[in-house]
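Hi all, posting the design record for the shared folder.

TITLE: backbone redesign
STEP: 1 of 1
STRUCTURE INPUT:
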């Protein structure tokens, strides 16, 4: 069942919880079926790609480009993974290594934002439901954490076409000012 945001808003708290749980279970099943595991924080992403036992680094063909990633074995047409990255990365800061039959790929995101998936053709995560715990938000100091939470809030608001926290503050301040000065006409006022 794929519901729109409007449908979701009409649901009761219980229905939302059930839908979120079902969506999460579906997401986890889709992610588990991928030929790799991945984790992310706002600015970076790690991909763990299992390779056949005994594979050596020199046997691997790993391509990391601004918007492309592929991992395969030299001499084999079949790639373990191959496709367009969800968003752009900083190539010079991204690396790969081979450890215990797993290729560890570290990608530095070009912009600090949540990715829905690693490769565009793979199942997506609902980035609005990312738990800050996954991002080690708890490790950040109060000020940085507040900044990151504000960025996440503003990002969500923008995606939904709603005002950001700064815009909300300006609107609130204007409302208070209007209430304090009923004699003034604000009908043509523009918030900038």
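Okay, here is what came back for every position:
SEQUENCE:
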């Amino acid at each position: 069942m794929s519901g729109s945001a409007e449908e979701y808003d009409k649901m009761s708290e219980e229905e939302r919880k059930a839908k979120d749980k079902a969506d999460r279970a579906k997401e986890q099943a889709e992610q588990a079926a991928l030929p790799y595991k991945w984790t992310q924080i706002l600015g970076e992403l790690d991909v763990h790609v299992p390779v056949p036992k005994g594979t050596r680094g020199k046997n691997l063909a790993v391509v990391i480009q601004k918007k492309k990633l592929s991992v395969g074995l030299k001499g084999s047409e079949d790639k373990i993974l191959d496709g367009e990255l969800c968003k752009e990365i900083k190539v010079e800061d991204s690396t790969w290594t081979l450890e215990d039959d797993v290729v560890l790929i570290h990608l530095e995101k070009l912009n600090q934002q949540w990715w829905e998936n690693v490769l565009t053709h793979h199942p997506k995560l609902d980035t609005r439901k990312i738990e800050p715990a996954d991002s080690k938000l708890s490790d950040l100091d109060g000020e940085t954490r507040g900044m990151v939470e504000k960025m996440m809030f503003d990002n969500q608001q923008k995606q939904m076409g709603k005002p950001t926290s700064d815009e909300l503050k300006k609107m609130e301040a204007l409302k208070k000012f209007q209430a304090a000065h009923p004699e003034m006409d604000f009908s043509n006022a523009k918030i900038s």
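COMMENT: DSSP finds four helices and seven strands in the chain.
Let me know if anyone wants the other runs.
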